[in-house]
């Protein structure tokens, strides 16, 4: 009996779509209280996932997806820095 390996699926906090974890970027809330882009997906802290598209980042900003995920308010500067990191990452 062959058990198929389960592919981890996560929900985008921007568009709400379920996608393969590998196709998404992880936004991390560190134990120190920082909100950063987790490129490795392995860092310690609470993670929320976004599709790798700027639209989803903007949707998450508009519908407060990260706020809901982290159960706290996210300052605009955090979204700005995430957008900047995103732009650098995806040229």
From TrEMBL:
Instruction: Give the matching Pfam families.
Output: YlxR (PF04296)
Q: Which domain of life is it from?
A: Bacteria
Q: Where is the YlxR domain?
A: 10-84
PANTHER family, sorted: BLL0784 PROTEIN, YLXR DOMAIN-CONTAINING PROTEIN
Q: What is this protein called?
A: YlxR family protein
Provenance organism = Suilimivivens aceti
